[in-house]
Every structure is written in C-alpha cells, then in structure tokens.
Amino acid sequence: MKIEQKLFAFFSIMLLVFLQQSCLKRKFVEGKVEIISVTDSILNDSSIFIGHVYDIYYFNNTNILMPIENAQVLIENSGSITNTDSNGFFYINIQPGTYTLKCQKEGNHWPQLIEELKNVSIKKNEKIQVVFYLGTTIE
Known about the structure:
The strands form three sheets. Strands 2, 3, 4, 7 and 10 form a five-stranded mixed β-sheet that branches. This protein has one helix at about 5-25; strands at about 25-30, 30-40, 45-60, 60-65, 70-75, 80-85, 90-95, 95-105, 115-120, 125-135, 135-139. The protein is of the alpha+beta class. It has a single domain, classed as Immunoglobulin-like (Sandwich), CATH 2.60.40.
C-alpha cells in the first residue's frame, strides 16, 4: 500500500471518529404537534388537513415562533405529501379515513426531529387544523 493510500485511510478513519463523537454530543430539543380545531363545512365530499409549521426559538426566556418554509408534511400510506409555503402554511386534500401525519424540515437527517401525529380520524367534509412545532439540535 502506498503512503498516500495509508494517509488517506488514516484521515478517513479520523474523520469518521470525529463525526461520530460530534453526533454523540448532540442534544435534541423536542418539538410537538397539536390539533387546533376540527370544523365541519361543505367541501364537496372531501376532507382537508391545513396548518402551519414553526421553529421554536428561545430568546430571553421567551418563545419565538418562526414559520418554516419548505418543511415537508406527509400523510403516511396515502401518497399525499406537500411542502409549506413562505409562511409555514400547508394544505392537503385527502379522502376520509384514519391517518398518521408527519412533518420534518427540508434536508433533515435526524429521526428525532420528525414530528408525527398518529391515528387522526378525518370525516367527509371535515377540516382539521394542525400545528407542528419542530424540534432542533444543540451541539
């Protein structure tokens, strides 16, 4: 093995060890999700999930909500997926049923930062408003 290959292998291993140690020191700030309202309306026999996605920042003991643009909101096992707009707003038209909603930031690689709301039943002509508050990491 040439010296260049040995050096490359050594530095590659050192980089992996550094990244692993960095990830192990990472702390996660939990997010949350909540249903804000459920309303009946005339929706041409369909159902709608609407809502917002926010980052929570803590500054001077105050919670500051920042809308997240391009957060991904999906409904498991339905094929329905959307991204939030610049105000953190999303809208998904869906058939009545019971679903799990999931939300994450664009480019997220941490399963701990995926918020989910399980077993949400939505009826025909029903609109459910959901708000996701996504967690974050602290190094």
